[in-house]
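Here is an idea for our session: we take a single protein and study its fold together. Which protein we use is up to you, so please pick one and set it down. Once you have written the record down, we can walk along the chain together:
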Amino acid sequence: MHMRRVTALTAVLTMALSLGLAGCAQKINGTAVMAADASVEKPTTTTKGKPTTTAKAPTTSAKPTETKPAGKIKITTKKKTESNCEILSPEEVAAALGAKPAPTPGCVQTTSDPLVVILLMVTLSDYDGTAREIEVAGNTAYEIKEGNDCSVMIMLTDDPEVITPALLASVTPLDEVDTCGLALKLATAAFNKIPNA
């Protein structure tokens, strides 16, 4: 299984730039894939050498790239999947982590004692890296460790049409802490707060 992961510190910089430059706009990266029933106009040449357009030629169907982690996703409790940067208040984050709260709410918060940067959001489930499959509240989840950083991603739905089907909780430590343990606590608290679908 391969997943692409963004560290919480990188996310802080990205969010600061995107909030400063684009307000609430969101950039979605991906690759365009032509639909199976799409067609392309092919130019033809007339006797005078000028190109003209004729009937559309059928195209071969392209297999879309997979945007979700491989394997069967188990969903015991479907949750709402609207993007939200204030799933947990600073006080709720602090309670989940056993820390002192951040001064402001949002997707990215910094707690003290322990000093960690957290990223918490409903997001895409397309990430690179090695993940360990776990289960949270009956739903398929993934623990993604990269260096000292750790993320837990819980699938909120198995609907392939949903753009943001996962809850991501990432912890970047500035103190010596069990980042995966904290990420799991944070993800579980946020999962429980998201309304059922």
